[in-house]
């Protein structure tokens, strides 16, 4: 489950041409934490998921749909 969300975030980020560091900074998260999210190592809070979705300019529901939920 976490790997699916992380993969979706990575896929969406790369499709937008955004670096991991830029996404992390925009979402007010540490870059190494963002890397862990993309690798499926961190259980996200709803607030952090919302921050990431906002930076990717998509809804949380679309992000989760991309992840297979």
Describe this structure in words.
This protein has 69 residues and is mainly α. It has a single domain (2-66), classed as lambda repressor-like DNA-binding domains (434 Repressor (Amino-terminal Domain)), CATH 1.10.260. It is built from five helices and no strands. Helix 2 crosses helix 3. The mean pLDDT is 96.
In the CATH hierarchy, what is the class?
Mainly Alpha
What is the third-level CATH name, the topology? 434 Repressor (Amino-terminal Domain)
Main pleated sheet:
none
The CATH homologous superfamily name equals: lambda repressor-like DNA-binding domains
- The helix-and-strand class reads mainly alpha
Question: Any chance you could write out the topology, listing elements then pairs?
Answer:
Layout: H1 2-15, H2 20-26, H3 31-38, H4 46-55, H5 60-66
Helix pairs in contact: 2-3
Keywords:
67% helix, 5 helices
Condensed summary:
This protein is mainly alpha-helical. The protein has helices at residues 2-15, 20-26, 31-38, 46-55, 60-66.
């Amino acid at each position: 489950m976490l790997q699916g969300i992380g993969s979706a975030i990575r896929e969406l980020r790369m499709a937008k041409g955004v670096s991991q560091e830029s996404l992390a900074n925009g979402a007010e998260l540490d870059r190494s934490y963002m890397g862990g999210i993309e690798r499926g190592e961190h259980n996200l809070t709803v607030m952090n998921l919302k921050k990431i979705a906002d930076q990717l300019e998509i809804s949380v529901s679309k992000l989760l749909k991309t992840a297979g939920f």
